[in-house]
C-alpha cells in the first residue's frame, strides 16, 4: 500500500474496503491498538467482543445460524470479522455478527478479526454498507439502509452512490420504494413481489388503484411485464380521459382571464380563478402573513 494518503474523492469510490482501510487512528486509540501482524488478523476472545449497537439487521434466522455454526465446526472461520478496539481487551463489532453469533453456538473461544479504528458515525456507515453488500438482502432492506446512510451519515445521493458502487438512478429507485403503502412494502420485505413489480407500482399515483393492481399481481402471480402492462394501460386511459374533457371556449376563457386580472388588482395579490364549461369553479386568494390576511379580510369587510 502506498504511503501517500488518497484524496477524498478516491476514497468515496471504493465502498466498504476504503472505509475499513482508511479509517484514521488518532490520539489515544493509537495506544490501545494491538501490534499489527503481517496478515493484519488477530485471534480475539469472543468474551472480549461487544455486539454492534448500530447493526442494521435486527433479525437473524436461527436455522441459518445453526447451519453456519456447523460449517464453522467443520471448516473454521473462513472470513474474519471486523472490530474496533475500545480499550485493552475490549472490542466492538463493526461487521460479521452472524459469524460472531454462530461461533458462540459452535463453541469457539476465539475468532479471527481485523482490528480497525472508527468513530460512531464510521461504525454505522461501515455496518450499513457491509449489510447492503450482502446478497440475501431484499429490496426494502436495501432501501432502508440507503435512507439511514443519507439521514444519519449526512451523505448526499451522489456520495451514497459512490459509497455503495451504484449510480444515482439505482439509488433513487430503491429510495422510491419507501413511498409505497405499508402493505406493498411488507410484500417486498416478505418477497411476495419483486423489485420489478414494486417499480411498476410506484408509477400509479392513486393509492387505491395501486393497491388494486398489487392485489391482482399477488393473487394471480403476475409477472413484472404483466404488471407493467396494467400500469401502462391505466395511465394511458387516464391521459385519454383528460384529453376528452372539454375545455372552455375561447370567449369564455378570455372573460375568465379579465375577471382574474380585476380580482388580482382589487386584492393587491395574485388570484387564481378556475371555471369549467358548466360555470362551476373556485377562487383562490393567497396571503403571505397574518397581516396580509387581515388586509384581505378588511377588503372583504369581514373584520
Automatic annotation (TrEMBL):
GO terms for cellular component: chromosome. InterPro entries: Chromosome_partition/occlusion, HTH_ParB/Spo0J, ParB/RepB/Spo0J, ParB/Sulfiredoxin_sf, ParB_dimer_C, ParB_N. GO terms for molecular function: DNA binding. Pfam families: HTH_ParB, ParB_C, ParB_N. It comes from the Bacteria. SMART domains: ParB. Residues 42-132 form the ParB-like N-terminal domain. Gene3D superfamilies: 1.10.10.2830, 3.90.1530.30. Keywords: Chromosome partition, DNA-binding. One of its GO terms (biological process) is positive regulation of sporulation resulting in formation of a cellular spore. Belongs to the ParB family. This is ParB family chromosome partitioning protein. It comes from Algoriphagus boseongensis. The lineage of its organism: Bacteria, Pseudomonadati, Bacteroidota, Cytophagia, Cytophagales.
Amino acid at each position: 500500500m502506498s504511503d501517500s494518503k488518497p484524496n477524498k474523492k478516491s476514497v468515496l469510490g471504493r465502498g466498504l474496503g476504503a472505509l475499513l482501510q482508511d479509517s484514521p487512528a488518532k490520539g489515544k486509540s493509537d495506544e490501545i491498538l494491538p501490534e499489527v501482524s503481517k496478515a493484519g488478523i488477530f485471534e480475539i476472545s469472543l468474551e472480549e467482543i461487544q455486539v454492534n449497537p448500530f447493526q442494521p439487521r435486527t433479525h437473524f434466522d436461527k436455522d441459518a445460524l445453526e447451519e453456519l455454526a456447523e460449517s464453522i465446526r467443520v471448516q473454521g472461520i473462513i472470513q474474519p470479522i471486523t472490530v474496533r478496539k475500545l480499550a485493552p481487551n475490549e472490542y466492538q463489532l463493526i461487521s460479521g455478527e452472524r459469524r460472531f453469533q454462530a461461533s458462540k453456538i459452535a463453541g469457539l473461544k476465539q475468532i479471527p478479526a481485523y482490528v480497525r479504528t472508527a468513530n460512531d458515525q464510521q461504525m454505522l456507515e461501515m455496518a450499513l454498507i457491509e449489510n447492503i453488500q450482502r446478497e440475501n438482502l431484499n429490496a426494502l432492506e436495501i432501501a432502508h439502509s440507503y435512507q439511514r446512510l443519507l439521514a444519519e451519515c449526512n451523505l448526499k445521493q451522489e456520495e451514497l452512490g459512490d459509497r455503495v458502487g451504484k449510480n444515482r438512478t439505482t439509488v433513487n429507485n430503491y429510495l422510491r420504494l419507501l413511498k409505497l403503502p405499508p402493505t406493498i412494502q411488507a410484500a417486498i420485505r416478505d418477497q411476495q413481489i419483486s423489485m420489478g413489480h414494486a417499480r411498476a407500482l410506484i408509477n400509479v399515483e392513486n393509492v387505491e388503484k395501486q393497491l388494486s393492481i398489487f392485489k391482482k399481481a399477488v393473487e394471480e402471480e403476475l409477472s413484472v411485464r404483466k404488471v407493467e402492462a396494467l400500469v401502462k394501460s391505466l395511465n394511458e386511459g387516464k391521459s385519454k380521459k383528460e384529453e376528452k374533457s372539454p375545455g372552455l371556449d375561447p370567449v369564455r376563457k378570455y372573460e375568465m382571464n379579465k375577471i382574474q386580472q380585476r380580482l388580482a388588482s382589487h386584492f393587491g395579490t395574485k388570484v387564481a380563478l378556475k371555471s369549467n364549461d358548466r360555470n362551476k369553479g373556485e377562487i383562490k386568494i393567497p396571503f403571505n402573513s397574518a397581516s396580509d390576511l387581515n388586509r384581505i379580510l378588511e377588503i372583504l369587510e369581514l373584520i
